[in-house]
Specification:
The protein has 174 residues and is mostly helical. It has helices at 5-19, 34-40, 44-54, 66-81, 86-99, 104-114, 118-143, 155-168.
Length: 174
Amino acid sequence: MGLGKKDLSREAASWLTRSQALPSMFMPWKKTSLTQIASTEPDAHDLFLDAIQRNVHTVSGAGRTQEERRILSQELSFEAGECVHSSDAISLSLRAVRLNPAQLDARVLLAFAAGGPSDELIQELEQIVRIGEQELGPECFRENRGRFWLVTDTRPYTRAYRLGAGVASGRASG
């Protein structure tokens, strides 16, 4: 009696596991959580980063570390900024904020997309700036005085701050 397709897959997986040709995360029938993979597979984070580079839309943030969710959120935010259609940009930005509520660029995009009176937009941008200040912390501001823009992590905060100031002074529109 021949082996069925499922049995062949399990046989192949058994051989691959024994030979360590593929990490266990590529064998979905094994009941291994992502946190176990991250702790047992030395290159799980590298595989995660590679998957984001291949297609950010197919990578899930579920079960990821806070840092991995932040990275995925940032990539989604970058993708949103390059979208031709506003609905796609909004969708990606919503997902980015869901993964990381402190994703400032995505929050700014959503604030402008929501429309409404400029006083609402100003209030939202002020809130986004406060979130950025909390995320960066007072030490970041002290250490990087005079070269703030050169620090990549401060750029979303700086963009939100400048846009808020522009809207408040009437130079930018919502």
